[in-house]
Amino acid sequence: MNSEVSPSAGRARHWALALSLAPGLALSPRRRALLRDMRAFCRALPRALANPLPEAMYNITPAAPAPADLDLIRNLADLAALLERRSPLGLCLRRSLTRYHFLRRAGLPVAVQFGARFVGGRPDRDITGHAWLTLRDTPYHESGEDWQGFVIMYSYPPTEA
User: Fold this and answer.
1) Please, what is the average pLDDT of the chain?
2) Cα(112)–Cα(133) distance, integer angstroms
3) Quick one: CA torsion of 155, 3, 14, 111, rounded to 10 degrees?
4) CB-hemisphere CA count at 13 Å for 91?
5) Is the pLDDT of residue 150 over 80?
6) Number of other residues whose CB lies within 10 A of the CB of residue 2
7) 93 CB contacts (<8 Å, ≥6 apart)?
8) SS3 state of residue 88
9) What SS3 state is found at 64?
10) CA distance 20 to 119
11) pTM score of the predicted model
12) In angstroms, how far is CA 111 from the centroid of its own chain?
């Protein structure tokens, strides 16, 4: 997770996301079902990631696309990741992998980037990691402050998006 974004700014964004989605969730059984599926996916991620990363990514990549509203999928995936706070996985990893799975299932050829950098940009500090999506080598709905400065250590799929 990016240490340069203040915790209060992050919480405000999280609350804004939840509040913006609440009316649609209240009125739509389909949206509630999709959010339930996404939360179940988030809860299963630690088990899936017990395998080597290439194998885990292969296993969570859906086989065939099913057209859907991409903005809704992205926002509900973000909410699902936020709601699964007891997960041993960091928020950016839960969010990126949930977005990845459900956006790919909708036919969008996104890729996941796994990056690392020194905390504060100094090699005498600890290393931090981050995960984000790209679409055609461009960060997909990701603030620059969240991914800039990270060195990509692994991408999946390796040659797409």
Assistant:
1) 86
2) 5
3) -10
4) 13
5) yes
6) 16
7) 45, 131
8) coil
9) coil
10) 33
11) 0.78
12) 11
For residue 2, name the pLDDT band (cuts at 50, 70, 90): very low
Compute the distance between CA of residue 55 and CA of residue 118 in angstroms, rounded to an integer: 27
Confidence of residue 5 (pLDDT cuts 50, 70, 90): low
Take residue 131 and report the two structure tokens written for it.
């995960």
Contact 107, 62 (CB under 8 A): no
Q: Express each pLDDT in 126-143 by its tens digit.
A: 888 899 999 998 999 888
Q: Distance between CA 153 and CA 161 in Å, rounded?
A: 16
* pLDDT over 50 at 161, yes or no: no
In the chain, where are the structural domains located? 7-156
With contact defined as beta carbons under 8 Å apart, do 104 and 65 qualify? yes
CB 113 within 8 A of CB 132: yes
Question: Looking at per-residue confidence, does 32 or 4 come out higher?
Answer: 32
- The rounded distance, in Å, linking the Cα atoms of 47 and 118 is 28
Task: Please return the burial class of 81, using the count of CB atoms within 10 Å of its CB with bins 0-12, 13-18 and 19+.
Answer: buried
Q: Do residues 104 and 110 make contact, with C-beta atoms less than 8 angstroms apart? A: yes
Q: What angle do helix axes 91-105 and 70-83 make, rounded to 10 degrees?
A: 150
